[in-house]
Amino acid sequence: MSVFKDERIWRIISTIWTIAFMVFITVNFFSMDKFEGLTAPFSAVYTGILTLYVGTKEFDRWYDFHDSRHPGELFVIGWTFLMLFFGAVAFFSSKQYHIAPEVAANYILVLSIFALTQKSK
């Protein structure tokens, strides 16, 4: 059995990428887009990893192979707090800071994936 057929490896990889991407976008936000050239590629990688993890998890659930619980609510809560924080800082900074479009797109992606997986249960 390949290690990448196991949902747990995708959970670990997606968790690492979630934390790394959140740290990156926070650093980039406060450095006023100093690393904007990396935002889109990191966003694409994060999107791909998260989609693979959720797809693997849902496939296993449909075929009754999924036995662990890793609540997607944690991803949604983390992204929601981060977006609210960035929004508040951007609002009160007199346009000194702004939220990158890729960050907003990733938030919408996380919400969409969560909503779809809740319906597929």
Task: Please specify the SSE layout and strand pairing.
Layout (H helix, E strand, L loop, with lengths): L6 H24 L5 H27 L10 H20 L8 H20 L1
Helix pairs in contact: 1-2, 1-3, 2-4, 3-4
Task: Describe the overall structure.
It is a single chain. The mean pLDDT is 85. 75% of the residues lie in helices and 0% in strands. It has 121 residues and is mainly α. It has four helices and no strands.
Taken as a percent bin, the fraction of beta residues is under 5%
Largest sheet properties: none
State the shape.
Answer: elongated
What average pLDDT do the residues reach? 85
The helix count comes to: 4
- The sequence of SSEs as H and E is HHHH
Low-confidence stretches: none
